[in-house]
Design a protein that fits this description.
Layout lengths: L1 H24 L3 E4 L3 E8 L10 H24 L3 H24 L2 E7 L3 E3 L1 H23 L1
Antiparallel strand pairs: 1-2, 2-3, 3-4
Helix pairs in contact: 1-3, 2-3, 3-4
Length: about 140
């Protein structure tokens, strides 16, 4: 379990380093031609650039993370390993993006899949934690 917590902290640290690099240099790095590159982008909105008031997003995100922290603490106390790791990853990814919103007024994105979207490691962590939480709720939670 400790290894997974350390791995999550590693990825969020990598996300923060990448965001710092791209906001300071705004460089573009091609990885696979035009299909995959690392490009600086400012995301003012939420997933897939759905337009919502930036102020509303800030405080709604913060409130949701505080609720998730409450459930994380409960899951740790109950020794629900899969649930607590999923919530921990969700909290870290969310805080990285919330930090951006409060500091810069937008989220820094840098992984560019040309024909799909541009996102960051924190977004990936949030997405993966939602997948694991869904699995947990669908399978494990049914049995309890």
């Amino acid at each position: 379990m400790a290894f997974l917590y350390i791995l999550a902290i590693f990825f969020i640290s990598l996300d923060r380093l990448a965001k710092t690099y791209f906001i300071n240099t705004e460089n573009n790095i091609k990885i696979i031609g035009d299909f995959l590159s690392l490009d600086y982008a400012e995301n003012l909105y939420i997933a897939f650039s759905i337009p919502v008031s930036p102020l509303f997003i800030r405080y709604l995100s913060l409130a949701l993370v505080l609720i998730i922290i409450f459930y994380f603490i409960k899951s740790v106390k109950k020794s629900q390993v899969m649930l607590s790791i999923s919530l921990f990853v969700l909290i870290l990814g969310s805080f990285s993006n919330i930090y951006d919103r409060f500091r810069f007024g937008f989220v820094i994105d840098y992984i560019n899949l040309k024909y799909f979207t541009i996102f960051n490691i924190a977004d990936s962590m949030i997405f993966l934690s939602i997948i694991f939480l869904s699995y947990y709720i669908y399978t494990v939670d049914k049995n309890e």
